Amino acid sequence: MQRVHSRAWSVGVATLAYALASFVHHLHNAERLAAYPNLPPGLTRPVVYAAWAAVTFVGASGYLLYRGSHVRTGLALLGLYAALGFYGLAHYAVAPVTAHSLAMNLTIGCEVATAALLAVCVALEARRQFRVSEGSGI
To answer: 3-state SS of the chain?
Structure first.
């Protein structure tokens, strides 16, 4: 039983870690927008903050559903939330790593790393959820 609680705890910690990393990256991106190389001209501070709010809404909804009575739907949304964290790598589609400052690379890297951690935690918990339902005859 202890393992079940530790997995639920790890999903929560990974969600919080990714949420924090995502916030820091979006904050840095919005406040230092002109310094980021080759971004589209239509990308503005309000657009960056709106993107963060939309992504965070997915994650918060997923976590609340996961901790409530819709565990699988919550895990699906948390999986989507984690996948959205890899979009930070799009910075490297428009400019190489060397064109970004250390702070830019760190915020991007932390966001991607914590998104990967969340994806692993969600996958492990989803596997456990499906095993539990198979064992119960549902």
So the answer is: CHHHHHHHHHHHHHHHHHHHHHHHHHHHHHHCHHHCCCCCCCCCHHHHHHHHHHHHHHHHHHHHHHHCCCHHHHHHHHHHHHHHHHHHHHHHHHCCHHHCCHHHHHHHHHHHHHHHHHHHHHHHHHHHHHHHHHHHCC
> Which domain range does residue 106 map to?
2-136
pLDDT, tens digit, 9 for 90 and up, residues 73-124: 999 999 999 999 999 999 999 999 999 999 999 999 999 999 999 999 999 9
Give the total number of structural domains in the chain. Answer: 1
Tokens of 49: 């903050």
